[in-house]
Amino acid sequence: MGCLHSKTTHLHLSPDDPSSLPDTHKPDPANGDQDELEAQAPVFKEYSLDELRNATNGFSSECIVSESGEKAPNVVYRGKLDNNRLVAVKRFSKQSWPDAQQFVVEAVGVGKLRHKRLVNLVGCCAEGDERLLVAEYMPNDTLSKHLFHWDKKPLPWEMRVRVAYYIAQALDHCNIENRKIYHDLNAYRVLFDEDGDPRLSTFGLMKNSRDGKSYSTNLAYTPPEFLRTGRVIPESVIYSYGTVLLDLLSGKHIPPSHALDLIREKNVLLLMDSSLEGQYVNDDATKLVELASKCLQSEARDRGDIKFLLTVVAPLQKQKEEASLVLMGLTRNTVVIPTMLSPLGKACARMDLTAVHDILLKTGYKDEEGAENELSFQEWTQQVQDMLNTKKFGDIAFRDKDFKNAIEYYSKLVAMMSGPSATVFARRAFSYLMNGLAELALRDAMQAQVCIPEWPTAFYLQALALSKLGMETDAQDMLNDGAAFEVKRHNTWRS
């Protein structure tokens, strides 16, 4: 792992050696059958609060992926677990789920569901007042983003049909598994995975809070029976599916009552998304409009069931073999999701040299166990005294930001010491950076890694030097490696 092995061999700074980076390749469940998906899916587990706090960098606001941000009643964070698996962590408000056991039982039940059309739930946490759900991470945004807030091009018609079909498949699977109630199905609950395929969030299979709240406060989109009785029934899910169909057809939020008026008055063209510019088959659009109308009937018994949805939508797919990423005009997301970094890692990532210097000063030599005491046990000679003085003058120069003298003193110290010091190499690396000598800084940061192979500081300084050299991909790898070792060290101390 790290720069010593393969990341910068082309700079001739170190010998080649096979990289020992952990294999984070994720199998592609979309190409396999359901049994294969279930075999690959992570086992549901109960996480500790410390694990999830660490995964989300202390529930940092920088990790929030809820489209409403911190204003959302239940905030969703991007997280990275110890095994480098990316996850979404939903943190419920303090008043939610007062009964911890009830929460865990419900989460475990939902966690048993596994399907390639679902964003599978992989864990939960119930400690103190905290209630958290952990699900697979979807890197390609929500249906809401692609329909209502697109930047370059609108969601194409064939992709909208695919969303309608895949979500019906997800609901059908939930129905088969006796999970017939889905709370507040809407465009925010549909997310796109790394292949661009739409999936239905499993978060909606659990109520939002202890009061049984099942829908957002927008009454215009709430099933009539819920307004009358406060109860959710399986047919309520069909009604909500109808509102999603309206979103897909119109590309905007249209209250069901208004949409039904347009349909009754045969003003279907007014309902259709103008950004599609007519790029759809009129008969197919008409069938989806008619299906939406049926789903939105005020009487639950008139709406049909999920099998009916599938029979209507399945034949409308005309480009089944075309990959979703191609249809959406996306490329596979190869950009590494920003790692959950320590303060030093963050400072190196944003190339904040002042902050890096401050942190290195505060850290001192404490990461080298026994390093400061080693000299005191040696035979006291003039050479030892000279070494101590050289170290002292180097540290003073480093503290006072006299980086040229720091390089001089630390270089003398390296030549005098019987065993190298990771901290000295780290400080000299930073001093080289401050003098515009990035390659020498990279070499010293690598030497610091030789001294302490799993020292996060060495990796972070390598990242900083690589960034200065314009090698951003390698720099990101170093940040990831440093963060991984930070997590490993934290877990070792905790245990």
Automatic annotation (TrEMBL):
Cellular component, GO annotation: plasma membrane
Alphabetized GO MF terms: ATP binding; protein serine/threonine kinase activity
Domain Protein kinase intervals: 62-317
EC number: 2.7.11.1
Region of interest (Disordered), ranges: 1-35
GO terms for biological process, alphabetical: brassinosteroid mediated signaling pathway
Top-level taxonomic group: Eukaryota
Record-given protein name: non-specific serine/threonine protein kinase
Originating species: Prunus avium
Organism placement in taxonomy: Eukaryota, Viridiplantae, Streptophyta, Embryophyta, Tracheophyta
